[in-house]
Amino acid sequence: MDPGADGALNCRTPSPRPQIGGVRSSFAPWEDPAARPLVRFDGVSKAFGDTVAVKAVDLSIYEGEFFALLGPSGCGKTTLMRMLAGFESPDAGRIMLEGRDIQADPPHRRPVHMMFQAYALFPHLNVAQNIGFGLRRQGMAKAEIAGRVEEMLALVKLEGLGGRRPDQLSGGQRQRVALARALAPRPRILLLDEPMAALDKKLREETQFELMSLQQSLGMTFMIVTHDQDEAMVVADRIAVMREGRIVQAGRPAEIYEAPADRYVAGFIGDVNLFEGRVSAAEGPLLRLQAGDDRFDAEGAAAVGDQVWLAVRPEKIAIHLDPPADPRNRLAGKILDYGYLGDWTTYLVEVAPGRTIRAARANTTRAVDRPLGCGDPVWLTFAPSSAVVLTK
Amino acid sequence: MKGGKSGLAAILPFLWLALFFAFPFLLVAKLSFSDTALAMPPYAPRIDWSQGLAGLQAFFAALDGETYARLTRDRLYLDAYLSSLRIAATGTGLLLLIGYPLAYGISRCPPAVRQALVMAVILPFWTSFLIRIYAWIAILKPAGILNAALGALGLPPVDILNTETAVLLGLVYAYLPFMVLPLYAVLEKQDESLIEAAQDLGATPLQAFWRVTFPLSLPGAAAGALLCFIPMAGEFVIPDLLGGSETLMLGRVIWTEFFANRDWPAASAVAIVLLATLVVPILLFEREQGKVLR
Ligand SMILES: Nc1ncnc2c1ncn2[C@@H]1O[C@H](COP(=O)(O)OP(=O)(O)O)[C@@H](O)[C@H]1O
Ligand SMILES: [Mg+2]
Questions:
Q1: A100: which strand partners?
Q2: pLDDT (tens digit, 9 = 90+) per residue, A99-109?
Q3: Residue A9 belongs to what domain range?
Q4: Helix axes of B66-73 and B75-107: crossing angle, nearest 10 degrees
Q5: C-alpha torsion sign, points A309, A312, A318, A320
Q6: What is the pLDDT of residue A19?
Q7: Each residue of B217-242: pLDDT tens digit?
């Protein structure tokens, strides 16, 4: 996934590459028309003065789902989440929880708990009291609270730290306390606002996998907000990509990556090469495109004469040292730069003055044997089925 | 400590304390161990420098705790002492009751309004303290503004000037900013997301206040209480102007001993006792602050 995100520069630290998509490929309640969503946003809009934070959002989240809201900073993710928690009220539209409009419910009556971006741990309470806070509000008996707190501490691997104050914990430990505190009262849905933003990269990756296994073992519904596409891809069953308050596309990570709805999504998730052109002929699913002097074949749906963009992921472009026999979808160029990422190398290939293409190659042999270097002339090809035709 | 500059910076507060606290304190302490005398200044012994070391020895030999013994024999001092603490404690309690909602209310306002309101709290300081207390006399006197207002409302007049009520009114009025400002400081910088987290976890707004806002504001309440209690216990001007003869407070006792009775040792001893008993709450406060800072 996303082989070129780190740019075509040398001297990069290699990054481990997470797998694409969720593990549970059969889990897809959103494809079942009979399934009732746990949470439903119904034409929800919200503005702060002149700033439109959320615009006509329709979204359904299903029981047991790990749902990610992905978008750049300021696109309205937090606002959407805060409306579900009850801290902001929509200007228009409805938010339903288990089929019921929760507009009139104040935050403390919503069985929705949030893990705050900066954790918001109570500094005057110790870890156990923090975790037990929601349980006490539910009127749970003292002994039962103590038991549940121990259980939660074990779940987030903080056994024995119940007596510490938040300021005596490391950042990673604080994050776990915040998670345990929000999970302890067993919310119908757990909201996580950039839960890993404050963690270092290694801890973040560990935590991502822990969150996933936690969510599956508890069988709970999680909704995570993030601006980190890798994070969303790793953890989520389904991703909704947001842009300027709107949901541009919602789907499985692999769908979003392999079949982006538009140029924005294609460019936001991973790296992409775009060729602008017109459809010159169509034969069944195969379209012939004229993009400047280049002609491409690609599979897609568009009418002859339409303006389209051909999106090709770097890893779907093959690099050859000798000209391939098939002239279709073939570009000649020379290597301008490359970025060695350990498992992958991203090449920046100049195909025309000022025009570069990113192509990625798995390093299946050791780097010292790599036959490609700066300035080498190469040929690039891609299969018609590897390219996506975008109409917007 | 290395480095001349930082060394000097570290010593400065101690120099300050030595010059303006320790030295005067020692003078007063020395006075409190002296006896009254018909002389100018009106106490003995005094160091006879012409005798050299012997004079110094004679001086120390003549110091005694007789004045303190005198304080315990006369009920007046104990009564004044207890009454001072009681009035200061009542005043502090009233200030907390009035100052807390005020500070909380200001901290909940939009930032621009907040600034204006804080300004309004400090504004009275721009007028002379004495003038403001005299204004209270004009308000509280039998034919004053308060009774005129009560009369206009058809209510019976009250006669509270020269009572403890008037003193408490004056104290609360004069010390309100010292209570509101530290409270406001802690409430204003309190993280809004903590309240949201509490509500998110099922706390009603009232519970969120009691479980989160209130406990986190206690250091501010403690600071405000000490800033008010300590000077109020030794307050002189307000009880003197608003309290009349029946209000017994140590500040007035000290004044009377110094200026009316010319009994400097007694005045000094009273001051020392007051200081010694006020050191206890200061130390408690320091410990509390230390805990918060840790
Ligand atoms: N309380 C608020 N008052 C005014 N503007 C806000 C408020 N909260 C959010 N916004 C604005 O709404 C937009 C979306 O913000 P937010 O939902 O926090 O985005 P994200 O979480 O995606 O970074 C931003 O332009 C932000 O400045
Ligand atoms: Mg945000």
A1: A97
A2: 999 999 999 99
A3: 4-111+187-264
A4: 80
A5: positive
A6: 39
A7: 999 999 999 899 989 998 999 999 99
CA dihedral of residues B212, B215, B218, B221 (deg, nearest 10): 70
b/e map of A94-132 (b: 16 or more CB within 10 Å)? ebbbeeeebeeeebbebebbbbbbebbbbebbbbbbbbb
Contacts of A129 in chain B (CB under 8 A): none
Residue nearest to atom 13 of ligand 1 (CA): A53
Q: Cβ-count burial of A28 within 10 angstroms (0-12 exposed, 13-18 middle, 19+ buried)?
A: middle
pLDDT for position B290? 66
Paired tokens of B232: 């109020």
Tell me the CATH number at A229: 3.40.50.300
Average pLDDT, chain B: 89
Whether A241 and A275 share a structural domain = no
Task: Work out whether strand A318-320 and strand A286-291 pair parallel, antiparallel, or are unpaired.
Answer: unpaired
| pLDDT score, position A7 | 33
Asked if pLDDT for residue A249 goes beyond 70, the answer is yes
> A5: burial class by Cβ within 10 Å (0-12, 13-18, 19+)?
middle
Residues A317 and A224 in one domain: no
Q: What was the pLDDT predicted at B125?
A: 85
- A366 reaches B (C-beta below 8 A): no
pLDDT score recorded for residue A13? 29
Residue A6: pLDDT band with limits 50, 70, 90 = very low
- Selecting from A114, A118, A138 the residue whose C-beta is nearest the C-beta of B200 gives A114
Residue A124: inside a domain: no
- Are A369 and A322 within one domain? yes
Q: Please state the pTM of the whole predicted model.
A: 0.80
| DSSP 8-state symbol, B21 | I
**Which carries the bigger pLDDT value, residue B146 or residue A28?**
B146
Last residue of a domain, one of A264, A282, A314: A264
- Same domain? A105 vs A45: yes
Between residues 105 and 164 of chain A, which touch chain B (CB distance below 8 Å)?
106-109, 112-114, 116, 118, 120-124, 133-134, 137-138
Inspect the interface and report whether the beta carbons of A134 and B196 lie closer than 8 Å.
no
More confident residue, A224 or B44: A224
Same domain, A291 and A260: no
Q: Which residues contact A277 (CB under 8 A, 6 or more apart)?
A: A289, A290, A291, A292, A294, A296, A307, A308, A309, A310
Question: What pLDDT band is residue A293 in, cutting at 50, 70 and 90?
Answer: confident
For an interface test with A, give the residue of B194, B201, B204, B210 to mutate (most A CBs within 10 A). B201
Residue A366's pLDDT band (cuts 50, 70, 90): low
Contacts of B199 in chain A (CB under 8 A): 106-108
- In angstroms, what separates the C-alpha of B218 from chain A's closest C-alpha? 11
Strands in A307-312's sheet, in edge-to-edge order, are A294-299, A286-291, A273-283, A307-312, A388-390
3-state SS, residue A57: strand
Check residues A82 and B39 and name the one with the higher pLDDT. Answer: A82
Residue that is last in its domain, among A264, A285, A304:
A264
Burial classification of residue B67, based on how many CB atoms lie within 10 Å of its CB (0-12 exposed, 13-18 middle, 19 or more buried) = buried
List CB contacts of B229: < 8 A, sequence separation 6 or more: B88, B89, B91, B92, B281
> How much of chain A is helix, strand and coil, in % rounded to 5?
25, 35, 40
